[in-house]
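ping. complex inputs:
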Amino acid sequence: MVTATALAEDRYFVPRTAAITAAQPVLDAAEHAALVARIKTLLKERDAVLVAHYYVDESLQRIAEETGGFISDSLEMARYGKEHPASTLVVAGVRFMGETAKILSPEKRVLMPTLEAECSLDLGCPADAFRAFCEAHPDHVVVVYSNTSVEVKALADYVVTSSIAVPLVEWLRDQGRKILWAPDRHLGDYIRRETGADMLLWDGACVVHDEFRSRELEKLRKDHPLAAVLVHPESPRDVILQADVVGSTSQLIAAVQNRPESEFIVATDNRIFYKMQQAAPDKRLIEAPTGGHSATCRSCAHCPWMAMNDLTSLAETLEHGSNEIFIDEDARLKALVATQRMLDFAAEHRRRVVGDA
Ligand code: SF4
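pong. complex structure:
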């Protein structure tokens, strides 16, 4: 029998964010402006729209805003792309986000600045091993996080985002269903504690959120006693337990905007600060610690794969129509069914489905 624990070994290479950003071309102000202008022209010429995740570099988020594109989480990016009239979607993010866009918009061309941008949750949950795990527990309903490949989504009964996961699992619990959850163990543990549901957890983790450290966070809170602590639920339990707000990316941005505090300690990818600061310009944002006495950071609060999206790769993709996303049609249709069940659940319960990594 395949177990989640057996798959917890580090089987994939995780690049360091600092090495990736150091390898990117350094542009002076004139080169930067010329490249941005070229990208804007190409977007028009190619009938393309740029949809960017909150975790990509500010320069890409800015272009998305200035050209009628969109910045959000993976599901909202895909939904926006589906509704937009452009025939080409350029997805600045990681591979599963391009796949999600293609699942919802099969008739459109979906391009990405790089196809090398992966996600440790996706990499840590290969479809063959996950299929064996599901087959070993046939009495469980399979619920997977959106940070998975199209092949894993095709094996699921439900695909969920971090903002809808708790109510959907509560609903399944009330029907007496046992749940098999993948891939993030911290988010799964959080959902299980919130709902009391009978859940089996896959043993994956996000390389960014897994690095937030509770002991250092305790010290930082002492230095900023009036700050509210905002935590994404892909973070370890001891970090989540110190949170004033646990939520998806969109929910954390809303918290900065709506809460009365003037200081916030934020435990998620620091590129989200661009939209947070825009939503609440007078508020002070402080990165939650990933290093210190008990840790050294690999990502340092910025996803190494998100960092692979830069202006040069975006321009090249638009210039040459490269890095197109193709997915198997049978897997797409199955993944669409599991995704649509979440959307239907959300509509029924009058909840707005937003948010994931
Ligand atoms: S931040 Fe974490 S969950 Fe998001 S893409 Fe990077 S590795 Fe995956």
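The chain is about 45% helix and 15% strand.
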